[in-house]
Amino acid sequence: NAGVTQTPKFQVLKTGQSMTLQCAQDMNHEYMSWYRQDPGMGLRLIHYSVGAGITDQGEVPNGYNVSRSTTEDFPLRLLSAAPSQTSVYFCASSYYGLEATQYFGPGTRLTVL
Amino acid sequence: AQSVTQLGSHVSVSEGALVLLRCNYSSSVPPYLFWYVQYPNQGLQLLLKYTTGATLVKGINGFEAEFKKSETSFHLTKPSAHMSDAAEYFCAVRRDSNYQLIWGAGTKLIIKP
After folding, report:
1. If you count residue pairs, one on A and one on B, with CB atoms under 8 Å apart, how many are there?
2. Residue B44 and residue A102: Cβ atoms within 8 Å?
3. C-alpha distances in angstroms, B20 versus A32, A74, B13?
4. Measured between beta carbons, which residues in chain A are less than 8 angstroms from residue B100?
5. What is the pLDDT of residues B21-76, one digit of tens each?
6. Stretch B104-113: mean pLDDT
7. d(C-alpha A34, C-alpha A82), whole Å
């Protein structure tokens, strides 16, 4: 099992550019989530999904879009990157809920200039 | 608003010494509490969690935590630190309203030889 994989590992964008962060899991988990991690702030939930075709907003959803067409994949789209979106992004999956054990990917470090 | 407070952004202990990482939370219902660990350049992984039942919870790598309702605390301990314990540790509580997690800001554990 590869677990949760994320690509790319590093990315530099210019303000206004768009991009998609990829996330995939091979554990057949229903729940998938995107978090951002900023220094001194812990993790904040951006969006999550409770199954294919179902997504919902977390606490910091503005500027991000998600979709979930398959159980395995949960991409995160930045529509028009801003310097405030400079962060480390983690994708996670869990079997039955956000309060269940979450399995995290290795992260994507994004810098927006 | 619900919150999680981790006392000390950095904690330094000598190899072989007791590790104590502090976490206080707020919740108006019986809490679900978590400790996750993040090793350098990796995603987070679950150390241990409290849901119901025994208040002393044992986790991986010799760590344990005790839920103390009267003190609203969930401190993480390990009797004897090892160099491999150097990492960042995050405490989290399940949000009362929607089962999402509220994360503490993290404590970086430094092990001195």
Report:
1. 51
2. yes
3. 32, 37, 9
4. 45, 48, 58-59, 98
5. 999 999 988 899 999 999 998 899 999 999 999 999 999 999 999 999 999 999 99
6. 96
7. 18
